Amino acid sequence: MTPEQSYPNSWYAASVPPPAILPSLQGDIDTDVCIIGGGYTGLSTAIHLRQLGFEVTLLEAHRIGWGASGRNGGHVGTGQRADQATLEKWLGLDTAKSLWQLGLDAVQTVEHLVQAFAIDCEFGQGDLHVAAKSGHASALAEEVDHLQTVYHYSQIQYLSKQAVGERTSVQGCYGGMLDLGARHLHPLKYALGLKRAAMALGVALHEQTPAIRYSADSRTVVHTANGRVKSRFLVLACNGYLGDLEPRIAGNIMPINNFIVATEPLSETLQRQINRDKLSLSDSLFIINYWKLSADGRLLFGGGENYRSRFPHDIGAFVRPHMLKRYPELEQTRIDYGWGGTLGITMNRMPDFGRIGPSVFYAQGFSGHGVPTATFAGRLLAHAINGDSKDFDLMSSVPTHRFPGGTLLRWPGLVAGMLFYALLDKLSR
User: Fold this and answer.
1) pTM of the predicted protein model
2) Per CATH, which fold does 1-122+185-252+346-398 belong to?
3) What confidence tens digit (pLDDT) does each residue in 44-59 have?
4) Which of 71, 219, 259, 365 lies at a C-alpha separation of 20 to 30 Å from 338?
């Protein structure tokens, strides 16, 4: 395969057989719905639309699951990216409760798709979020109590520092929040499983077909290098790879790069020491670290980010200090893979759902919570196109703030802000 035809070099890509390349679009076609983007949002939208009886064509600029959907940490967390207390302040308790339920529905949607289409993606249960500062421990305890008493969520519990230490040897931890309602998976296997499901349902998938521009009059028309797609509806499912395709929403998100390493396979003793219960884990720093074990016993550790067009030359060296801060016993452990991915974040870390006119729909800005939320977005987009927009409208009602200066000035503004929070992460404990 040429570099344009292959997946980025990652443990995820190395652990699956290379899928056959799907043909690019040639000529003009007419369909009910055109979807731009072959990640979780686009694939889930396509699946749910086909189940509702729509004809669907999906265009992917590279390979299905090539972007963040095939490179992320694989965490399937409950709730929204913003915590419930924050949502209550913004929107009131009733709306916050509705958004919490949608967050649970998102996890259930992922689980349903995995089961319904027999997707082998190393599906696991449970997430442990550890307090990286002493002040964060009390905040996590309060959050657990709030979810238990106000939201009647029984699958979550607060763990003391000692109780966390019984499950993981993580350093710099002051307590934790264990959520047994959360899930985790192999992200690329999940994406490729959704691809197979979409194809089985009759979705027309075209890889290596970048959308150059589109128009939306009586029908939407998407222009590519070698053809056009005419449709009743258009879904923009591009997230951090939107580029300049739609300037009216590009300023709502900021593409940032996040990085992951995979160690060599660890001994069973070391695996149990690091992650006794095979959970997904993360810490409470603003620039979050996240990790879990792979099926073959590697530590997959995500840490560090940048805001440039290029990745660090040596991703392993870039991430390694973050990993060793949490697990110093891995000092002599070899790193076999290091890779990065581009995700879209919003100002308030809540996803950006919306319409552009009557026929163009979009969902983006999942802010690191994309496995459940992007999958669920597809379900909501499909139902909205079918005329049932209640839940889609609820998500789109959450205010989205454009980055100051739009696409021109968002980069320096974000960098300044992230450097500030990075400094806070390094200072107080």
Assistant:
1) 0.94
2) FAD/NAD(P)-binding domain (3.50.50)
3) 999 999 999 999 999 9
4) 365
